[in-house]
Amino acid sequence: MNKKSILLLAFPLLMGWMASAQSVYKNQDLEITKLEDHLWVFETTDKTTMYLIEGEKKAMLIDTGTKCEKLNEVVRAITKKPLVVLLTHMHGDHAGNIDQFGEIWFHPADTVLLKNGKPYQGKIHFVADNQIFDLGKKKLQIIHMPAHTPGSIVVLDHAAGNCFSGDAFGSGQVWLQLKPYAPIKTYISSLVRMETLMDMGITKIYCGHYPYVKKAYDRSYIQTMLKLAKSLDDGTARNAVPFDRKVSIGCEHPMILTEGVASIVYDPEHLKY
Fold it and tell me: Helix (H, G, I), strand (E, B), or coil: what is residue 77?
């Protein structure tokens, strides 16, 4: 096949990607890009991420970022449909704008993290493992994936093959050093469950900090994370080094273990905790 034929074959694929990944809105806080039909990613200037999914009857906003002025109005520039605001977990970089919305949904295990911020004045709904949200010809399934936080969840769109993972598996780097600590076996269980879901048709993982990666992860990412986690559990991990970034809810002497694009930041004193 000559170069001209290759270019002719590649051109429709390239144009299809360009049509789907199209910037549709931008202000001083964020930029919104259409990733797929009825799916948008909100990327904030401080590298946090939200996803908006639209069905025929409702829409869902996954996470609310950090500081985004008039986020509720920005969402309404994209969709006018009744909105479900769902949090993958209760860390401030994913729940920073909840006060702009009258109702939110999150997993009850993350109520322990509410004390770290100011009280939310709206209505709280708790999600359950395997709960289904029907947006109208668009069904989304909630799966509990603890470790990063006790109540971390992912959102599955089986029809599209998509997973919206928050920080459950990181954005290249997963933080397991954060309080309240979870044992490494908890993370391994979540990874095994995610790998099984990918065997059943989930092909794309849209992570919680999309600006760092600009793509969806595939099954190989989860497999590499699982390999790293198992090596930490069984004591065969090599080449871990001190991690130079600390946060107020982390440990004093974090370590990082890396292979390829995947890294685990962990607390050596609480691996088995």
Answer: helix
pLDDT bracket for residue 126 (50, 70, 90): very high
pTM for the model = 0.91
Which residues lie closer than 8 Å to 70 by C-beta, 6 or more apart?
100
pLDDT in tens, 70-112: 999 999 999 999 999 999 999 999 999 999 999 999 999 999 9
* All domains in the chain, ordered by first residue: 12-169+186-218 (3.60.15.10)
Amino acid, res. 54 = E
Phi-psi region of 183 (alpha: psi -120 to 50; beta: other; left: phi over 0): beta
Residue 167's alpha-carbon distances to 7, 16, 17, 71, 238, in angstroms, are 38, 29, 26, 21, 24
Exposure class string for 257-273: b at 16+ Cβ within 10 A, else e? bbeeebbbbbbeebbee
Element (H, E) at 255: strand 255-259
Cα angle 163-48-154, degrees, rounded to a multiple of 5: 25
